[in-house]
Amino acid sequence: MKIIRYALLTLGLLPGLAFADEINPADTAWILTATALVLFMTIPGLSMFYAGLVRSKNVLSVFMQCFALTCLMSLLWFAFGYTIAFGSEGVEQGKWIGDFGNMFFAGMTMDSVSGTIPTPLFAVFQMTFAIITPALIVGGFAERMRFSAMLTFCSLWLLVVYAPICHWVWGGGWLGQMGLQDFAGGTVVHITAAVAALVAALVMGNRKGYGTVAMPPHNLTMTVAGAGMLWVGWFGFNGGSALAANGAAAMALLVTHLSASAGALSWMMMEWIKHGKPSVLGIVTGMVAGLGTITPASGSVGPAAAVVIGFSAGIICYYATNLLKQKLKIDDSLDVFPVHGVGGVLGTLLAGVFCAPSLGIFSGNGFSEGISSIGGQLSVQAIGVAATFTYTAVVSFILLKIVDKVIGLRVDEDDETVGLDLVLHDERGYDL
To answer: Which of the residues 65, 168, 332, 357 could staple to 175 if both were Cys, CB 3.0 to 4.6 A apart?
Structure first.
């Protein structure tokens, strides 16, 4: 019977059928694609998006940081990060961190299966999340952190902040047990990265001349190209989090696109109203806000809710950006906290509202069945936000202080004036 079943699957006569602990070819093919899309978000998507926003004397430093983090975080995930986040199969996991039985992928073989996909594929899919999250932090300290300090801080941060929180939410930890709705990383990715970026900006202080010297993006064309890559890659980020080629993945793709569109247009609208002209930087930033905000809710809300979430994200993140830069005078260089942090908090909370079946057209895929009330789920979402925010802020602050004491976080003022490209890498991005 098993032979007949495999034969039918191979011939494509049973495309929707999956059996426990057996690899589903359709699911595997989709997650292979999604993994490539999420890696594409960092290299080249995020690196181009960020690099275009800094001054020309620092463009290569941003590329270098994103590229180096991609390599280093991959090896750290292989060595320790994955087992801290997800542990090893067949072992009951604790509330706080996974067991250490899968260091260096020790318990993983070509025949290992997680659900309906190979375990190595699940591990590398999660690896791409572990890559982009520290890379997002780069935007908070761009143009002023030492390269060695960046590598040291992000390495420690991955192991003691990202991996444990990943376990709390997705690896069987206490927030997942509480029922936190975070489909693709509102808490795990966006809040953690944004809070770390904000803490780094506060610890390091503003860039030399911030508030008195104009620091416009040096190449918005590069930024827009990177933003387009992020938009496309985000389909793998959210759609792949279904871990299957099914209706949940399809709905995640749909709501992701709608939220991005609504966020872009609402940010554009705000700029048009406030300043008389819409900007290219504004519309792409609004798109990213829409994408980040829908991320935690992308597996549990429907299309109408996605439009509301995205539209809200564009407006709220627009005001948050102005508050941080103009009122509070905090130099979060590339707006990581007001876009990803505020968006992550907003999306995580709204997931608790719009996933409710009682909201009719706003309800999603049935993931919230059994939730007795919107208020009950909102309290769970709020606990998740508060715990993630607090733990990330405290530990990030400690790590930054340790790195500053041992290595020194910041280049000196003369080096900052010359630019990190020449000072740290002995290269220039442009030689025309």
So the answer is: 168
